[in-house]
Amino acid sequence: MTELYVGMDIGGTKTAAVVIDADGNLGASTLLPTALGNEGVLQSAEAAIAALAEQTGCSRNDFTSVGIGVPGQVNSELGEVRYAYNLRVESLSLANELHARTGLDVAVENDVTAAAVGAAHLMQLGHGSVAYINLGTGLSAGIVLDGHPVRGANGLAGEVGHLAVDPRGRQCPCGQRGCLETVASGSALKTYWPAGGEHPGWVLADAIAAGDTEAKLAFELLVEGAAATVRTIGVTVSPDTIVIGGGLRKIGAPLIDGIRANLEAGERKSPFLQSFMLSQRIRVVPEGMPVATVGAALSPRT
Ligand SMILES: [Zn+2]
What we know:
CATH architecture of the largest domain: 2-Layer Sandwich
Helix content: 25-40%
Bound molecules: zinc ion
CATH topology of the largest domain: Nucleotidyltransferase, domain 5
Largest sheet: 5 strands, mixed
Number of helices: 10
Strand order of the largest sheet: 3-2-1-4-8
Shape: globular
Distance between the termini: 23 Å
CATH superfamily of the largest domain: ATPase, nucleotide binding domain
């Protein structure tokens, strides 16, 4: 029997999980609501494993390993997560506790780092360096070198959202001013366009199409901020590929086209910037590609 690996992405509202085989081919998948708190997260993970076993027609003991992507500070060596506030988790020894309940080998990865690994694998980006920018409610990035994630001390590599680039910029919840997250994220978009409601990224394209000038200005500011983020990562790491993912990619082609046009305009003015070829190196995660779950499934082997 082929080896089967579970990959799971536990978010603040939903837990998504998949099964992949040793060649990375996708099998069963499930999407469940997340219960919050330490006990809730453990129960959600157990429920997802049970659902996948049922769909696959096997026992959960047949799974080789479980990889879990979670928000917050993750110590992958110890399988611990801290400060995952949208899961209402302050500190949880997720790998050990889930192992105690299921007998399975469990690995834990930061969710954006897992998505970066999944994007590098599913988009077949091969060897070299990949920077994955997660434009979600917040802003962060994952770096992958030759298929292996760069986690950094305390698992904190890639927190580009809190690079304070503008000392006179807006106050950020992290305690600094002018962080990239204040100009390139869902929360930035909310500030630019309060009329867009709770999830402005979902309705922005329609509002622009309907001639809403405030929505159009908000979109332009978001594109500027996202392009600044690409340049910041670009000149720091000079990755072979920069992948745009996260909830805001639902805005669709206008977002990636806008970022690319902004980068091209900068490159025309600056031979220095042109040498990084960032406008040619950016890609967007295709709609529906399960980068977070597949990356989590791969994480026990990275
Ligand atoms: Zn900040």
